From TrEMBL:
Protein name, per record: VTT domain-containing protein
Keyword Transport found: no
PROSITE patterns tied to this protein: RHODANESE_3 (PS50206)
Organism: Massilia phyllostachyos
Record membrane topology: Multi-pass membrane protein
Subcellular location: Cell membrane
Regions crossing the membrane: 7-27, 47-68, 135-158, 164-189
Keyword Membrane annotated: yes
Length: 314
């Protein structure tokens, strides 16, 4: 442990850069505590807080630009990929897309303080066509606010941080074991949270082929688009689909026949949002409701993605 603290004192700027970089790329390694430690060490002149701040902002900017370009070229696909590899629940993208739409690139000012939102803010900026100049302005400012707040906390509470470091140093290898155990516990809890979330939305799906058979057989199934408004602007809807978020759910359900087949789709991993909406329909007496397996991707695989169409509202 003493060697680790010595490394922080000698290579603190590089360690800050490296940890922030890997965290911003999506690995479950919290980098904020190292910023606090860096701020505490800077009080006694063992580190230069200015260099630590610059290193953290540069690391954030490298990742933000990478995800921004990925979102610009790959759109919704990169968002689904991020949600698949994330330890957050599978609905992480869908829950934050419309929040981003409301505030636009200004969301980048606070995105790094919000777990989950930080993961998708940059690629979502690229996917919806945010201009590079405002993106860079808000991304740099947001990174500076996030990094600076961590360093400032270290400066303000440097006595407490130094006492903690001294305690860890006396604990030797036990301290590293405790830190590793806490990190493993964090990852395990997020994994359990994700499994529980999937279990809550477990239900029978309908395949695209079966949906097409219902349409060809004259059953006239009602197709519900459960995607966020932002996602609807990125990819065209299934023709004739009703937009679930166009009006209050009870208002939409009041206009529908409970005996008809209801097919709900989304564009999120594991059809989580579609399953959640389908459960709402089932709870209100629509017993022929099922989410579409594979969502919009599965539909487009059969038909190809076409130009954006005007949504069918309530």
């Amino acid at each position: 442990m003493s060697q680790l603290i010595e490394l922080l004192q000698i290579y603190g700027v590089l360690i800050v850069f490296g940890l922030v970089l890997v965290e911003q790329f999506g690995l479950p390694i919290p980098a904020f505590p190292i910023l606090v430690v860096a701020g505490a060490l800077s009080v006694d002149g063992e580190l230069m807080w200015q260099l630590c701040l610059l290193a953290a902002v540069c690391a954030c900017l490298i990742c933000d630009l990478f995800w921004f370009r990925a979102g610009r070229f790959y759109g919704k696909r990169i968002l689904r990929l991020l949600c698949k590899i994330s330890l957050s629940p599978d609905s992480c993208v869908n829950q934050t897309e419309d929040r981003f739409r409301r505030f636009g690139a200004r969301s980048l000012l606070v995105s790094k303080f919000v777990p989950g939102f930080n993961t998708i803010a940059a690629p979502l900026s690229g996917a919806i066509g945010t201009e590079a100049r405002p993106f860079l302005l808000y991304a740099v400012t947001g990174a500076a606010l996030w990094s600076g707040s961590g360093i400032l906390l270290g400066v303000v509470f440097h006595d407490g941080v130094e006492e903690l470091l001294a305690l860890l140093e006396t604990m030797g290898g036990t301290a590293l074991s405790v830190i590793a155990a806490l990190l493993a516990l964090f990852v395990a809890l997020k994994y359990i949270e994700r499994r529980r979330h999937r279990a809550r939305t477990a239900m029978a799906r309908i395949e695209v082929g079966e949906l097409l058979s219902l349409i060809d057989g004259g059953h006239d199934p009602i197709i519900i688009d459960a995607r966020s408004l932002t996602a609807q602007g990125i990819e065209a809807a299934i023709p004739g689909a009703l937009v679930f978020k166009a009006c209050p759910p009870e208002q939409l359900m009041a206009t529908l026949d409970r005996n008809r087949h209801i097919v709900v789709y989304c564009s999120c991993p594991n059809d989580v949002t579609a399953a959640e909406v389908a459960k709402q329909f089932l709870a209100n007496g629509f017993h022929r409701t099922r989410p579409l397996k594979g969502g919009l991707d599965a539909w487009n695989a059969h038909h190809g993605s076409g130009p954006a169409l005007d949504p069918v509202t309530c």
